[in-house]
Each structure stands twice: as C-alpha cells, then as structure tokens.
Amino acid sequence: MRIVDCHVHLAGEVSATDALKALDANGVERILAISEPDRTSIRQTRANLLRAQKLFRSAPDRISGLAWINPTLPGAAELAAEALETLGFAGIKIIPDHWYAWEERLEPFWDRMNALRASILFHTGILYAHDDGSRFCQPLHLEKLVHYPRIRFAMAHVSWPWCEECLAVMGRMRAAANYDVQGWQSYVDLTPGAPKHVRKQVIANTIEYCGAERVMFGSDSTLPGTLAYQKEMLDRDLQYFDSLGLSTAQKERILSGTVEELFPAQR
C-alpha cells in the first residue's frame, strides 16, 4: 500500500540519502517536507526555501516541498508565487501567527494565492509555540477563504481541540461548492493532534462526515533523524483504520490518494 506523509518538518540540513533511508525503513513512499519557519524576515524565509529545495530536488519522486511563509511579511505574496511557479514547491504552509485569516490586510495575499490556484496546509488547533497564538488558529477563521474558491486548503491536526469546528468548516465549504466535489476547497490532515483517548473517535467522525476522499495521513515528524515518530504514528493510525473497519480503498485514499490530489509531485 502506497504511503505518503503530508506533514514532515525540516529542522536543519538534511541529506536526501539519509532522508530516503529513513523513509524506506518506515515503508513510506513520499513525504511533504515543510521548510523551516522564520517569523520576521522575508530574506531568511527565502534562504530556508532554497535549503528545502536542495533536498527535494535531490529526490523529486520521493520528497516534495511545502514553503512555510508568513503572509504578513512584506513581499510574502511574491515569494509564495516564486515558490510555486519557479522553485518547484508543491504548496504553501501557513500558521496564523497572531493574525486572523479574515483581516483586510491579508486580502491581497489571498487574491494572489487564488490567482495561482495555490494549495495550502494551515496549522489549525492548539499551538505549542509562537507565544499565546492558539486562538488565531481556530478553523472557523478560515471561512474567509470561501471568497477565494480557487485556493484549496487542508486543516492540520483535525484542528484539535476544535475538531467539530473543523468539520463544520468542511461542511461550510462543501455547501459553498453546491455539494460538487470538484469545487470543494477544503481537506483534513489527520496529523496528531487529538490524544489517544479520543483520537479513534476523531478519525471516525472525520471520515463519516467528510469521506475518506477529503482526509490525509500526516505524522508531524521531523528531519533530520530516523523518523521514529512517523513510524509510531503510522502504526497507530493503521490500527485505528482496521478497528474502524475501513476498506482497502478508504485506507489507500487516506494514506496517499488525498494528499497526492492536493499536493501532487512537481516534475
């Protein structure tokens, strides 16, 4: 069964050889590698993108890039366009870092992403970083994107602890598309997240409400390293999938099909 991890962070220099060795050990075919963040400098952000590009250009069939960009920085829209159009990134990664997606000042950025038909992975849910920033990451704030229908986006972590709010936003976007799956903008990233005592039910609720076609596997693991956490999360979720009685087709969709629809490999 093909496995793609939609959520792997980069934290320093990583060799493609070491990364592929870790993927092979875990039985993972492809990852989306998220460039290192910088909250204040567009220059440093671009340097981080180029470092990530060096990695995924070395193994384009196995590693794709997500460009971590702060949309409030001057030049962010231009850098995002460069990442998607020139540098070969599969999409953009965004954390709402003390700003709300519906703020008027961000409308030019969303306009540009809409024109580019960008795919975006948003951090949603509790945020164990960036000071007291969790309140900006409630999924409801992403309703603003209904005005930018060519943007496709995923809500990471099933927005824990706002999992039901995440599903409500999914329903809102589905209705906005007149229940046409081709126009439905939003997806859910199963990356933890929800702790063990509720995770199985969160997964069940998400699949029941959205369908496996809108759900993707992610680990929130980090390179460089052995990706031991990736293996732990994969094994745990596979057990949940079996106990929920998911079909082979549903498992394949969650483990690879959905992410490859939203963030296809760039050649």
Could you outline the blueprint of secondary structure elements for this entry?
Elements: E1 4-10, H1 16-26, E2 30-34, H2 42-58, E3 63-68, H3 76-85, E4 91-94, H4 107-116, E5 119-122, E6 152-155, H5 163-176, E7 186-189, H6 196-210, E8 215-216, E9 221-223, H7 228-243, H8 248-262
Parallel strand pairs: 1-2, 1-9, 2-3, 3-4, 4-5, 5-6, 6-7, 7-8
Helix pairs in contact: 3-4, 5-6
Write up what this structure looks like.
With 267 residues, the chain is α/β, with parallel strands linked by helices. The protein has a single domain (4-262), classed as Metal-dependent hydrolases (TIM Barrel, Alpha-Beta Barrel). 40% of the residues lie in helices and 15% in strands. It contains 8 helices and 9 strands. It has helices spanning 16-26, 42-58, 76-85, 107-116, 163-176, 196-210, 228-243, 248-262; strands at residues 4-10, 30-34, 63-68, 91-94, 119-122, 152-155, 186-189, 215-216, 221-223. Strands 8-7-6-5-4-3-2-1-9 form a 9-stranded parallel beta sheet, sandwiched between helices. α5 links the parallel β6 (152-155) and β7 (186-189). α3 (76-85) runs parallel beside α4 and α5 (163-176) packs parallel to α6. It is globular and about 50 Å long. The chain starts with a strand and ends in a 5-residue tail after the last helix. 45% of the residues are buried. The mean pLDDT is 97.
